[in-house]
Prior knowledge:
This protein has helices at 4-7, 10-27, 40-55, 59-72, 77-87, 91-94, 99-102. The chain is mostly helical and 118 residues long.
Amino acid sequence: MGSLYERLGGSESITAVVEDFRxxxxxxxxxxxxxxxxxxxxxxxxxxxxxCEVTSGEFDALVQxxxxxxxxxxxxxxxxxxxxGVLGPLKPDIVEVDSNQxxxxxxxxxxxxxxxxx
Length: 118
């Protein structure tokens, strides 16, 4: 059956997914201002590295964009669930900067996403 990394298509496929995901986030008005000061080249590489690492061995919106990207690339639901299950516990490491530190305040209606479950 192979590792999740292999089932996702390895580095080349993960890179294509991450690039599409990055582009979706950049176009998503719900969250794109959170990344206004972000080095997108660095972010792209960090995401590729992170997904490659965890699969071989404003979170709601990010997850929605990632799922949309997976769907675009016809990634199976089982593999999507597995990636989200691995990334869920890493939320504090992925979304770690307070909104005030990046200069974009969260709307007063913002509520953190519920924890992902397996």
